[in-house]
Structure to design on (416 residues):
């Protein structure tokens, strides 16, 4: 039977659920006990919000609100982790369907289907769903934003652009690192946004803008600064800042030894922010070379490491095949990380300016890849968590590149 129309979505949904089920049982996910510190942070943030109506210094409202839904029903912390798995699976599945919808605008449905199947093979993207982390949900938000922007370009119906900006603003309250991305997007679309500012559909933008304001006001009330999160200052100080500092001392920065972290965490959040900002200024002034060296070292670390989401798994039941499967997938994830990071960078450079006037949508995709990749250099030791969030966007540009090459080949063949 030949697949047509909606059948592609049904088949993709079936394949994705079967694949998750296979990974879940083959690698004994239910028996794993490791919890990332970040995961416990998200649980803690949800507890703050639902039990104390209080902000968290690092984790913003939207992620906390989604994560903590089980608390509404009187359930405990374990239910929060279980619930996050279902949220992540839905997000991962939703990302695949959005990716297919975007690629089939470039290629015939069957080829778009094959490109989407590649997404399922991305180890880091698949295994992140088994942890209470933001990457799966954030990736879905980004693809939904791209889908809506693409709709805007094709229809010029303002509600698509309004919802796209709203989803992007919501993503800031999932991953605070997206705040500059959202500011740039608003500036990029400032003309249509200003032109339609009084339309009813613009209200959703104002609503999420107000939510960001509420987040900042709550942090100000609880910790002293009008900011979305303190995580950016902590990251700058503890990772790129510490590596540059240790370089200046002729010492090596390792994952398990961070000599500056205890001091920063001994301070109040307000004081820690001041210390981190002062440290950045001082190093920019007096330690530039080591800061640049630290940045590129971090960047290399981020694009050459394997999936930490899988790396923390252990062979609880001593199954004979387990280590072979785990090590094979870890090696695959390392290769995928390097390949998609490098090819993503090259394709993004290619399409950033090439398609700006004729197809600005692909310039937007390119900018997102470059933005996400390049800001990852401020941190390190997180495996592929910084890069997997742009892998679907890379697949989209790969499909675009393949489409153009195919058309060029066909024209050349006709002339011959």
């Amino acid at each position: 039977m030949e697949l047509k129309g909606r059948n592609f979505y049904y088949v993709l949904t079936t394949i994705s659920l079967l694949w998750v089920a296979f990974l879940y049982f083959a690698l004994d996910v239910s028996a794993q006990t490791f919890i990332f510190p970040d995961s416990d942070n998200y649980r803690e943030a949800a507890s703050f919000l639902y039990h104390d109506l209080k902000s968290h210094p690092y984790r913003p409202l939207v992620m906390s609100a989604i994560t903590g839904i089980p608390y509404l029903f009187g359930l405990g912390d374990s239910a929060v982790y279980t619930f996050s798995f279902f949220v992540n699976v839905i997000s991962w599945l939703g990302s695949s369907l959005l990716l297919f919808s975007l690629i089939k605008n470039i290629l015939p449905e069957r080829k778009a289907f094959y490109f989407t199947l590649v997404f399922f093979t991305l180890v880091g993207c698949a295994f992140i769903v088994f942890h209470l982390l933001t990457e799966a949900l954030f990736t879905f938000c980004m693809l939904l934003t791209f889908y809506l922007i693409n709709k805007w370009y094709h229809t010029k119906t303002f509600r698509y652009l309004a919802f796209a900006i709203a989803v992007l603003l919501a993503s800031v309250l999932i991953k605070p690192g997206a705040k500059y991305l959202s500011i740039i997007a608003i500036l990029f679309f400032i003309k249509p946004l200003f032109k339609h500012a009084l339309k009813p559909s613009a209200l959703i933008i104002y609503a999420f803008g107000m939510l960001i304001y509420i987040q900042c006001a709550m942090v100000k009330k609880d910790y002293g600064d009008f900011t979305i999160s303190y995580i950016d200052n902590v990251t700058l100080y503890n990772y790129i800042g510490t590596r540059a500092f240790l370089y200046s001392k002729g010492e090596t920065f390792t994952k398990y030894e961070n000599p500056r972290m205890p001091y920063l965490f001994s301070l109040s959040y307000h004081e820690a922010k001041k210390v981190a900002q002062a440290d950045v200024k001082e190093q920019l002034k007096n330690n530039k070379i080591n800061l640049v060296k630290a940045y590129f070292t971090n960047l290399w670390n981020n694009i050459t490491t394997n999936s930490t989401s899988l790396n923390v798994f252990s062979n609880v039941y001593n199954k004979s095949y387990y280590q072979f499967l785990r090590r094979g997938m870890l090696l695959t994830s390392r290769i995928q990380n390097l390949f998609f990071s490098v090819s993503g960078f090259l394709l993004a450079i290619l399409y950033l300016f090439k398609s700006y006037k004729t197809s600005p949508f692909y310039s937007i995709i390119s900018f997102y890849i470059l933005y996400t990749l390049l800001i990852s250099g401020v941190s390190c030791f997180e495996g592929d968590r910084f890069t997997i969030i742009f892998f679907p966007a890379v697949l989209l540009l790969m499909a675009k590149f393949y489409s153009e090459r195919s058309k060029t080949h066909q024209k050349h063949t006709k002339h011959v």
User: Anything to note?
Assistant: Residues 51 and 71 are 8 Å apart (CA to CA). Residues 322-354 form the longest helix (33 residues). The two ends are 36 Å apart (CA to CA).
